Amino acid sequence: MNLPPIVTREAWLEARKALLEEEKAFTRAKDRLNALRRQLPMVEVTADYTFEGPDGRVELGELFEGRAQLIVYHFMFDPSWDQGCPGCTFLVDNIGKLDRLHEGNTSLALVSRAPLEKLERYREERGWSLPWYSSYGSEFNYDFHVTIDHSRGPQQYNYRPARDPSNDWDGSSIELPGHSVFLRDGDRIFHTYSTYQRGADLLLTAYNYLDLTPLGRQEPFEEEWNRRAAAGELSRRDRVGAPHGASGRIRE
Amino acid sequence: MQHPLPAIVSAEEWQAALEAFLVKEKAHTRARDALNAERRRLPMVKVEKEYTFQGADGPATLVDLFEGRRQLIIYHFMYGPDDEEACSGCSMFVDNMGHPAHLHARDTSRVLVSSGQIEKLMAFKQRMGWSVPWYSCYGSDFNRDFGVLTDEGEGFALSVLLHDGEDVYRTYFTRGRGVEYLGSNWSFLDVTPYGRQETWEDSPPGWPQSEPYVWWRYHDSYTT
Fold first, then answer.
1. What ipTM, to 2 d.p.?
2. Which residue of chain A has the CA closest to B102?
3. What is the pTM of this model?
């Protein structure tokens, strides 16, 4: 097995402290990014969406469970499937207890397009307890760009035109992952934010743990970064994330 | 609601604002990839000393904590011999730990180590309903040698170790906000319009905020 270089405690400390400077700069960059997110405007949700939940039919407002903010994870579960998406399953396995989110006046719920019985069965199998609603028969998934169906005209995913799913598989539509955030003010509901794909990276705690280990996530996309780090090709800009700095050449 | 709201705009305007912001988020994700690549190139130090821990099943060595896997992540949980209560921030951190199977699939174990006596740790673990392995380093030099116990007292921290044959190496150590990415609670609140609702955050005027560190409770002790 290939090992990192073995050095003295003093040499390790020197290398560790050099990385710490970069890590701190990155944390501050995240603080600035989060501050910008809190300045985003929002859009009123005017469509009526109904969902099927364990206690019967509910509207979007009820998913807040009385709290001011709601995070929906769009869990990929096509009505024709018997099992939920493995990647989404990984994501949900990473969700901890919700008490502290609730203390922050924030609810978290899963929404999928499969009928409720399928969701309930799968939830029981996985031993999960978080709220899961079915948007079967509703426009919710289409309006929030997580069910892509080109028969409904040009489709967007992650703020770009979406590929036609019929190129990839024989279904007429495809489910895709994402998080959407809502704010409630009395009876009015607003959509504040949606993020897709690697936007959920920070919510995947197992990845964040593996990122701290010498072997990392052990995924192929890391190789290019390894190579560039080894060749001394990473600039400070690459590491700290100047807003318009790094290009999308490594991983979407 | 007594707090102000973000600006309410049309779907088109919102989409444009979000797309401009997305460019910055993507740059941030790539920057993290680059930072992580550098971390994977850090050197490491051999652990020369023998340490004995107490676990649920009796005494254990540092190698035992790896449970046969190649990598080990230790969260240094603040619960010392004289502490009447476990640290509430550390408890929130453990509440955010997901199912360990995904880490195990990458040959990586995750455990807690505290300097309090094992009986105390086990009692609190049961109350919290946690399943993560928890070891006591009571009476050993472990916390001092690993920089967790200093003259200022005991802190929370995270250590990463690698195991090769009989040898164990320290590869990484972090504390303070270095563990922030592992607390998914913060990450979830970060995507909401009101954020973590803490006073240090740069938010629009009037946003709900309270002091950090003090609003956390044990998950069975919130009133809301």
1. 0.80
2. A206
3. 0.84
